[in-house]
Amino acid sequence: MTRSRGIAILAAAVSAVSAVALDIGAVAQTSPAVQVPRDEAREMNLRAYTELLRSDVRAQKVAVFTQMMAFSEREDAAFWPIYREHELELSRLNDERLAAIEAYAKAYTSLTPPVADQFALKALDLEARRTALKQKYYKQVKAALSPIRAAQALQIENQIQLLVDLQVAASLPLVK
Questions:
Q1: Given CB 3.0 to 4.6 Å as the disulfide criterion, which of 60, 86, 103, 124 pairs with 137?
Q2: pLDDT digits 0-9 by tens, 126-135
Q3: pTM reported for the whole predicted model
Q4: 3-class secondary structure for the chain?
């Protein structure tokens, strides 16, 4: 599998996840059989998006790493424990990000300048912590494998995160 093919597969999975989540929100908003208040529809959309994203993208991510990195037996044994630790820490950050997104969704219609500032600062803090986590992960993979293999893993991780970030950002309304 080529690098672009692996990323294309993951991009398709992320798009499918977003489409399903957005469809759930749209159905809740437009279907006469399902009259759901706008806030509840947003909440359903967010929950569906989150659950699908966690399950589908994680499975695809492992497949992409496996195929793109084509690990030797030694590399495989060294990489996956580091990866699992990284994913656990990343999932904690993503949980915080999700909580911030949920808070933003609830406050969106009545944002004040101080609250908007809090959301922006929280987003910047989460991004800085995610960057620090990637730096930690890179150093561990570099020590366990090599600088080139660590750079490859970091590149794949960055591409995946950019795809997910784009999907999340596209679903959030701009601050008014």
A1: 86
A2: 999 999 999 9
A3: 0.72
A4: CCHHHHHHHHHHHHHHHHHHHHHHHHHHHHCCCCCCCHHHHHHHHHHHHHHHHHHHHHHHHHHHHHHHHCCCHHHHHHHHHHHHHHHHHHHHHHHHHHHHHHHHHHHHHHCCHHHHHHHHHHHHHHHHHHHHHHHHHHHHHHHHCCHHHHHHHHHHHHHHHHHHHHHHHHHCCCCC
